[in-house]
Amino acid sequence: MPSESPSALLALQRATHTTLRTLAAELVDLDLTASEINALANLADGRGRTVSELGAAVGARPTTLTSVLDRLERRGHITRGTRAGDRRSVLIELTPSGHAAADMIRQTVTDLEQRALGDLPPAAVAGFHAVLRALTDASS
Q1: 3-state secondary structure of 59
Q2: 10 Å Cβ neighbour count for 5?
Q3: What is the CA radius of gyration of the chain?
Q4: What is the mean pLDDT of the chain?
Q5: How much is the average pLDDT of 107-118?
């Protein structure tokens, strides 16, 4: 009897949790949770985002993201202000300490990706990205 192939979703979940543990260990000096690391990584390009935009980028509902943003704001990593032309919209932006933390996170992510994927053929990495897009699209 042939063995069933493992579920891609379960494998992705295992890889995600392992990656988050690795990032948390490598970034232990920042004293951030995985959710805080994810939020700062998604703000690392320096572009301000609304709570809704950041929530979509990190894969969390705005209500769930609020406590993460509260902690990051208390630590001085982000500010919350209004967006020009729309006072109802809250704009999240990095502070200088937030930029420093986000830069460290982005570099750590890049280094981990290089260690994990650097020896794979480009076609394999492209296929992986295609699978991630398909899973994201199917879940939206």
Answers
A1: coil
A2: 7
A3: 17
A4: 91
A5: 96
